[in-house]
Amino acid sequence: MSKAAIERRVITILYDFQKARKVWGDLVSDGLTQANALVNVQLQQGYVDSPGYWPPALDRFLDLKERFEGKLQKRAVAIVEDFETTFSKMSAQYSKMKLQTSQLEYLMEEATETFGEAFVYRDFFGTTCTLEQIRIQLDRVFALYTEQIILNREILDHLVARNQHYQPQFISASASATTSARGSSDDRSTKDSVALDTTSINDDNDPNDQHGLGAMIPPVRGDKDQGMVLLSAWLNQPHLKTDVLATFDEFCQVELFGNET
């Protein structure tokens, strides 16, 4: 393999990584629409049990409440399925990003064997960076997505738990509550497609945890408040630090993509 071939391969790796990030961003928008629809349905389900929204006079109509609840539940189940599909697609993009980081590591090993350590660790590969520095930048961004996909799974599980009339407590709930909310989805292939340490998900109730929902949002009361917190967490994707991502985008453009002919 020539040095020019290595350079072309690195550029391809970064292009594929950036493409997966773009698709991820589109899926965040899709997921937000689905999450918002699910929260709205859940609020309507709560209204059925509230005399202020469901006058007792309506109880004179046989099975009206049950039929209305059944309709809402059917709609909620359909939304959850769509949301799970979106997360599955997001997991696929995460897997693609992981593949690119692995391919770059393999390429570095091959380059070291062929051209020596100086080519990888000391010689400029782009404008002012080495091949090792490219790997460091890529790993830094990938680490953010690793944290974020864990949080996204957590948000989805909390929303599904709400639909099952289980109200998660963000700060003080036991770890077993989180596990039970997730139990029905443990065997889904969407989780198998992402190699994650699920223990970090179950620790979200630890007030000292800096990655789960409990670390980044205060305890709230009320279905509407909880729903808005979950929607905000999904919308903002808080682990994807904008300054780090902007630096990486500029790095790719200046150091590599800008040198293409």
TrEMBL record:
Positions of region (Disordered): 177-218
Superkingdom, taxonomy of origin: Eukaryota
Name under which the protein is recorded: Uncharacterized protein
